[in-house]
Give the backbone structure.
Amino acid sequence: MEALVRFLEQYPELRTKRLLLRHYRYQDLEDLFEIFSSKKTTRYIYTYHESKKVTKRFLKYKIEHAYEGTMRDWVLENEEHKAIGILRIRFHLRKKEAEIAYVLNEKYWRKGYAYEACLKFLYYGFNQLKLNSICAQVSTNNILSLNLLGRLRFSHEYTDRNFFLFHTTEHYRITKSQFKREVEVK
């Protein structure tokens, strides 16, 4: 629990081969608007921005409240210093569990960026934060995300047919022991 509390206070940046997972910056406005104003990109999430004004309010809120509560967002910045997505982590402290969610600019789909960011958090979450498990909820229709969770060796737990009245949602989880056995050793 101590590592989780420290993380929530410090909230470090993380690096992968091609990405910097970092905090929001005001300079991200154009890139974030490109992501959240795309109906194709946001069709499975609950955030759609009709104007830059909405994105500006969103960004201001995220910067000003970055260290509040048990949810943290990392902006996924690529090699060209463009914000191409978000990795959101919601912590359940008592269970030593985290829930991941992500959104990626459609121009960067099928290039391994979401896999790379999620894998980085799996390593960090299990090894540094000492989490017991990491879970995810994905729309049944979101085939790309379902495939991603499969590649990351998450196990299907159950289907929720009444999730927020929007669509059917699949619930997945990977435990620390499953990660050590099936992912980390490879």
